[in-house]
Amino acid sequence: MANILSRYGIKEVADVTFYEIGEDGLPTNPALYLDTLKVSTIEQTAEEANSNGGKGNPPLIIWDYGKEITVTLEDALFSAKSLAIMFGNGKVADFTSAYIMKTEQFIATTAGASGFNTTYVGPDGKAYTKLSPKFYDVDGVATAETELVKGTTYFCSYNLDASGSVIEISANSFPGTYYVTGDTYARSETTGKDEFFQYVIPKAKVQSENTITLEADGDPSVFNMNLRVLRPRDGVMMKLVKYSLDSGTTYTAPESTLIDNSVLTPVGE
Asked: What confidence score (pLDDT) does residue 214 get?
């Protein structure tokens, strides 16, 4: 039973899980797990209508209506799945043995030949072969490699062998609706210890407005996901749960293992 005199503080960001919603309105399989959030904010607003009267026309009765609950999640990192949920319908397609097209600028070093480096060095330090190179002058006109002029700037488009994941964002694909939980802690004023706290949103629509900022300086980009809470069948839009676990046993930490130089494997072996 809740003690009305107990008081708590909340600071720590929540770990948030998205679940698919079944035909019965209950959660099914997890669709996304976020444990690198910087901010998770819950905001409730409502409109009101007043009945005013008497001297000075003060408000006598107030009716509240139009309740709206929004959740803002700011993630330090992204995954293919989180981007798919933010910008599209949540679908991620894997691909293998495909081509990725890149374009780069270069200056021809010899007349009649490009001096173009046919090797692409990736951020992993490995060398990759540039396939099907096509050359263009600064006006975007296609130019044969044998016609390149020494000291002149050109562009080259080429392919690289690739595999990975793709998220297709079409004109008629929009973010979906999910069952959402957020797990964090509430700290007791009396004991100074953290206790479990969870919010539960049975039906949250991911909003379509999103921004990714790419810039040369400043802080790295964060990934914002805005949720609008909908009314489920039973009318309960959100639950705030402070709880403790029952039937726990004493935890014994595993024995620590130290690493020394004898276990190191030299590079190249």
From this structure: 87
